[in-house]
Please model this.
Amino acid sequence: MASGFWGVCGFFLALEVVLTLGVLFTGRKGNNGLRHTLCTTAVFCCWLMWIIVYMAQLNPLVRPQLQNG
Model:
């Protein structure tokens, strides 16, 4: 499995595709706009939280202080 930034972005993209297909092929037929919106928003929010944490670890604001002795 690919790791790193693009691997995880690909995972979230695949998750969005699976959820979209799940909305299309399950449940009642008709207007599924709200379900699509909720699934897309949930995946986007999870991806956004992941990217914020990932970027925060690339350049931490607080660096460890070495103490001699």
Remarks:
- The chain has a mean pLDDT of 86.
- Residues 33-58 form the longest helix (26 residues).
